[in-house]
Amino acid sequence: MKILGRVTFFLLLGGIFAQSSRNAKVSGKSAKRGGGGGGAQAGDAGQSTPSADASQGSSRSSGRSADSRQDSAAGSRATGQQTDEMRLQLLRSAQVTCNDGSAAGFYLKEFRGSRRWLLFLEGGWCCYSKETCDSRYQNIPRLMSSSGWPQTKRGTGILSSQAEENPHWHNANLVETSETLDWDFFFLFLNCPCKLPNSNEYSFMGSLIIREVIKDLIPKGIKQAKVVMLAGTSAGATGVLLNIERVASQLEQLGTEAQVRGLVDSGWFLESKQQRSPDCPATVSCTPEDAIKIGLRMWNGVVPERCQQLYKRGEEWQCFFGHRLYSTLTSPLFIVQWLFDEEQLRVENIYMGGQSLSEEQWQYIQNLGLEIKNSLTDVTAVFAPSCLSHKVITKSNWMNFQVKGTSLPRALHCWDRSLEAIRNNRTPSKGCPFHLVDTCQWPQCNPTCPALVDQATQQELTLLQMLVAMGLDPQRLGLDPEGERDSLVSMANNGG
Q: Confidence class of residue 189 from pLDDT cuts 50, 70 and 90?
């Protein structure tokens, strides 16, 4: 019997946009980089299987065969029980590994009878040089090995199986690829290095892992899927932008009629305003643009072909930014983006609630909201609250946030209905919005924003209280406490 369903899919990635590549580690020096533009073209067309060395390394690390790994998973499926937990599935292919050469895998929860699949790429910073990769491997080993992954995970937000928390996707087949738990710098993303045992090399296999995960889902019924949504948060969201066309192509080649869609949460970044550090790339002081340029050579990185054609060789790094990549993609995309994204602020060394704030930095914060808002003008489906935060779709309270009186789950449902109507040659219904961008200008001017928290005291503060605590005079900045309260009341009454 064919098992159909929606699957939230946590891929344990070795690098979402990277080709299979290895970069020799040179003691005391930065690793040599090579294979930029040509490798990207080849990778976009499709990736070859890594060499036998990679296979042997991962086999040694995992210590068990693919068959034995799958036997235990099959036993749990045979019980036919529906639970809220996603179970760890290790890839059948031992040649595609992650991190330290241990087996790559994903978490899976099947909902039998459903033809909707949710494939989720978890976010997480990563490295772009020998020094940063070595540091990551030494200091955060859980991000570079599957050996410590738990056998089960429970999803929240759009990954939840509870209808009251996840009204429209709770009964999907869920597949999660878990690249990292957290990340510190947005530009260190998507290329989770695979350090092969007994080797002085790193490998970058993220796109290969995504391909192999989809292969492993064929017996689960993904070929019969009606909708496949590739979703991600933070770095994983950028991974959605970089990989969605490749996923759509793979599924088309499998003969599926599924519509592939993308959900991009907090991965719509803008270029940094910082000047290039003279210490780059020897330290983590590189700007995002420089880190991507350096990383692309090390990763032998892949960018979508249509975007690559817009830029001359050496400028492919621009395709890592959603506002440059978006117009070249053909798959439907829904962009979720806080207008005052905290990770974008971190790139500029701005930490709300954690340090003093200059008037120049406050001005940058205000301008950031306008710049992100302007960059979203031509995006068809978008949810952009005027808040200071980062990531939303996996928060258990994600239903609380609204723009113009519409919650994010509702906006996603409206988008879903519109796509289905167009697919079936019907006119989309009116009064169900999914282009929602806050019109108010200030951070936290949306009354449904997540609360700001003082990092020292862990107390919740209003924006004005936060600015005072960080050494600014609200009146000097032209902020009126009474006016702010009146504005919030008006917004609440008029739906944002």
A: very low
Task: Decide if 234 is catalytic.
Answer: yes
Given a cut of 90, whether residue 222 has pLDDT beyond it is yes
CA distances, 219 to each of 82, 87, 213, 249, 465 (Å): 18, 16, 11, 19, 55
pLDDT, tens only, 16-64:
444 434 333 333 333 332 333 333 333 333 333 333 333 333 333 333 3
**Does the model's pTM come out above 0.85?**
no
CA dihedral of residues 258, 81, 160, 406 (deg, nearest 10): 60
User: Tokens 């050579």 — which residue?
Assistant: 297
3-state helix, strand, coil in the chain (%, to 5): 35, 15, 50
Return the half-sphere exposure (C-beta side, CA atoms, 13 A cut-off) of residue 405: 9
Q: Is 341 a catalytic residue?
A: yes
The alpha carbon dihedral of 377, 379, 382, 386 has a sign of: negative
Catalytic entry in 234, 272, 386, 407: 234
* CB 191, CB 295: distance < 8 Å: yes
Burial of 306 (0-12, 13-18, 19+ CB in 10 A): middle
**Rounded mean pLDDT, 279-298:** 70
The DSSP result for 343-372, as a single string, is HHHHHTT--TTTS---HHHHHHHHHHHHHH
Cα gap 79→456, rounded to integer Å: 49
3-state secondary structure of 394: coil
Among the options 390, 407, 435, 438, which is catalytic? 390
CA distances from 427 to 114, 417, 420, 422 (A): 25, 10, 10, 7
Which letter, b or e, does each residue of 344-369 get, where b requires 16 or more Cβ atoms within 10 Å of its Cβ?
bbbbeebebbeeebeeebbebbeebb
Which residue is it, tokens 């009878």?
113
Ordered by start, the domain boundaries in the chain are 8-337
Q: 166 with 113: CB under 8 angstroms?
A: no
Closest to 495 (Cα-Cα) out of 385, 387, 398: 385
The two most distant CA atoms of the chain are separated, in Å, by 69
- Sequence-separated (6 or more) residues with CB below 8 Å from residue 308: 37, 40, 41, 44, 316, 319
Q: Answer whether 12's CB lies under 8 Å from 180's CB.
A: no
Q: For residue 142, what pLDDT is reported?
A: 65
Catalytic residue among 341, 375, 407, 438: 341
The total number of residues shown for the chain amounts to: 496
State both tokens at 302: 């892949």
Q: Considering only residues 67 and 262, tell me which one the structure prediction assigns the higher pLDDT.
A: 262
By CB atoms closer than 10 A (0-12, 13-18, 19+), residue 95 is buried
